[in-house]
Amino acid sequence: MKQLKIIIPFVFLTLLLLASCRKDVPKGAVIQANGFVIDSVKNKRLSNVTIYLYGAHSNFYGVYYDIGPLDSTISDIDGNFSLEYSAEGTSIDYALAIGNVVYGGYTSQNNYVVDVVHSLYPFNYSHLLRNVPLRARELNYARVNLKILSNPYDTLYLDVSTTYGELFLRNLFIGKSIDTFILTRYLPDATNTFEYQILSRQLLDSGWFIRRMTDTLAAKMDDTITISKTINSAYDIPLAPY
């Protein structure tokens, strides 16, 4: 039994060392991928989605796909894509992603966000991926009718976000009173947070407080939803720590 206790950690350590010692893909080696982008909830092909190629490095703790993005391509009208890349010689492996694998997944695309369940598609040390289904989430529209009768702070932010952070949009309103509407986006079949905030210097200079009011929406699949919000005074928005 003592021998077994010694052997198991040794094997584990050996596997870690082998992973951390994997050699870089030779410079100039051709990395290829093709496939399609599909909405994992709507089950529809998605066009005009940017797909990024990332490289990987390894250390004692594991493999990290955070080099790049090194290249990109865009899905066509049918959702199909293809990519060919000449290896730069500093990555041990490659992966495809819809969003940014280094900074939390934001896509900076107007219409799509990452699918947090399928955020990364490694090559797994192959140089070729065929018919890969890349999963993304298409955003729908939200029309926000906003009325604030008195806004002494002059500015108000409306942040739209989701539970897992794949969506974050900031909308700015200016005026001593506000009576307008905007079209923003939301993620269907997900919990969306609409947060109304006063981020004012007067508040921050007095104890690092802001004013924040949050509405949570368990959104369905409507193409466009309408939200109407009336606030008598910005002073009615509760104080909260910054």
Q: Can you walk me through this structure?
A:
With 242 residues, this protein is mostly beta strands. It folds into two domains: 2-138, Carboxypeptidase-like, regulatory domain (Immunoglobulin-like, Sandwich), CATH 2.60.40.1120; 140-241, Immunoglobulin-like. The chain has two helices and 16 strands. Strands 11-10-13-14-16 form a five-stranded antiparallel sheet, with no helix packed on it. A hairpin with a 5-residue loop joins strand 10 and strand 11. The chain is elongated and about 65 Å long. 24% of the residues are buried.
Structural Rg: 24 Å
**What is the overall silhouette?**
elongated
How many helices does DSSP assign?
2
How would a textbook summarize the main sheet? 5 strands, antiparallel
Mean pLDDT: 88
CATH architecture title of the largest domain: Sandwich
Portion in strands: over 45%
Q: What is the terminal separation in angstroms? A: 56 Å
Question: How many structural units, i.e. domains?
Answer: 2
Question: What percentage of residues falls in helices of 4 or more residues?
Answer: under 10%
Structural class: mainly beta
Strand order of the largest sheet: 11-10-13-14-16
Fill in the CATH topology of the largest domain: Immunoglobulin-like
CATH class of the largest domain: Mainly Beta
* Poorly predicted runs of 5 or more residues: 6-19
Number of strands: 16
- CATH homologous superfamily of the largest domain? Carboxypeptidase-like, regulatory domain
Give the helices and strands as they follow along the chain. HEEEEEEEEEEEEEHEEE
